[in-house]
Every structure is written in structure tokens, then in C-alpha cells.
Amino acid sequence: MPQLTGEPAKKQLDEAAARLQEIGLKSGDSTLNEILSGLASTYKSPEATDKAAAEKLRASTISSFQVLSRACGNT
């Protein structure tokens, strides 16, 4: 996974977080909204552009989508 450093990476993470929140709100599903909002918060965290953050963001994304998949009845 590429390193997430500098303003361009922070801008991209902020845009992704905003889109996740938008999708969660538009879904009308509280579980989906909660999962996507939590993931968006991780993307917006101050440490999100730290060099070690790429692994944390990857793990958080995978975990969130595993929860989402189980909530949708997929295992």
C-alpha cells in the first residue's frame, strides 16, 4: 500500500470520508450508515497521513467491509 503523506493524500482521504458519509446517509439503513461513518472517521483522523497509517487504514477498511458483508447476510 502506498504511503499516505502530504496534503494530496490528506485531501483524497477527506474526499473519500465525505463520500462514505454521504452514501451512508442516503442508504437509509442505520447499520450501513454506522459502518460507513465509522470508516469515514478513521479516514479523517489526524494520523491518517502518517507513514504507518496506511496499514491501519487498510485493516480498518477490511474490518468495516467484513462487518458490512455479515450485516447483509454474506459470510
TrEMBL record:
Domain of life: Bacteria
Designated name of the protein: Uncharacterized protein
